[in-house]
Amino acid sequence: MIEERDDTFLARWMANELTPEELDAFKNDSDFPKFDAIAKGSYLFKKPEFDKEAFKQKLNEKLEHRKKKVIKLRPFFYATAVAASLFIAFLFLFNEKNYVTAFGEQSTVFLPDGSEVRLNAKTKLTHRRFFWSQNRKIKLEGEAFFKVAKGSLFSVVTKSGTVSVLGTQFNVKTRSKSFELACFEGKVAFVSSSEDVSTTLEKGEAIKLKEKKIETFKIEENSPSWLRGQTIFKETPLSDVLEVLQVQYGISFTTNTVDLSRLFSGSIVHNDLEIALKSVLLPMGIEYHIIDTTVIFETH
């Protein structure tokens, strides 16, 4: 473009002072026919003498006018750059979608790829808002049951590790004191956060993660019991059972000197606090009373 050349370029062209390379390049320029027409037209004037300086000034004025047009366009490009920057910032700031359940609440979430997720009480699920189907990864805090649509790798990231599948049904529970994974269909792979523990589960297999060690066990159900309004325990520490009661009913416990490592086998319902407490505490010989939302264990 002529704007990219120095201010003396046209004057040197009129004086036949361009180098062969400069002249060839100028003739290939899209603006050359315009200037060539002006130059040729000047020879038709009947004025006996050609005023070279006046012509140079006229051409330079035209050049300056063209440059000003270019300068006026710059704010548009600046505005475009700012708009692009704001769009990128928007993607970073609003690129996460969250689903949260409260105490005792359950919810069903359908992901963009058609996968279905059932959230248990006091659970948070997070995934990318944009382009998620190109990278099927979610974050989970709490407990959820997944029916994953077939496709690319699907990953569930928890504080304890990552669960990866292609298409299957599985349940993940990640609470403050426990992590459990159960496979109800297909296969699932698990790798701990520290990457020092890993395993693969098939249908009917489940694991618990305790102190960075994996405990395996079998399951016979076709889906987790909490989907049917109850939680079933098998030789589960009392501390873990109380945590389930907390997230289902929004209560707290004052356990005093009660041994929370004692094991409990049985079930609790999710729709009646009194029945749930009696189902756990009476068989274990624990007496209690309730003040507001706090269950206080009695000592003798």
Characterise this structure.
The structure is a single chain. The protein is an alpha+beta fold and 300 residues long. It has three domains: 2-93, no CATH class; 96-225, Jelly Rolls; 229-297, Phage tail protein beta-alpha-beta fold. 29% of the residues lie in helices and 34% in strands. It has helices spanning 9-14, 20-27, 32-42, 52-93, 238-249, 273-281, and strands spanning 96-100, 107-110, 116-119, 124-128, 136-147, 154-157, 161-165, 169-174, 179-185, 187-192, 198-202, 205-210, 213-218, 230-237, 252-254, 263-269, 288-291, 294-297. The strands form three sheets. Strands 1, 2, 3, 4, 5, 6, 7, 8, 9, 10, 11, 12 and 13 form a 13-stranded mixed beta sheet that branches. β2 and β3 form a beta hairpin. The longest helix has 42 residues, at 52-93.
Mean pLDDT value:
82
Shape: elongated
H and E order: HHHHEEEEEEEEEEEEEEHEEHEE
Question: How is the CATH topology of the largest domain named?
Answer: Jelly Rolls
Q: Which class of the largest domain in CATH terms?
A: Mainly Beta
Low-pLDDT stretches: 89-93
How far apart the termini lie comes to 96 Å
Rg (C-alpha, Å): 37 Å
Count of distinct structural domains: 3
The helix content is 25-40%
Q: Supply the helix-strand structural class.
A: alpha+beta
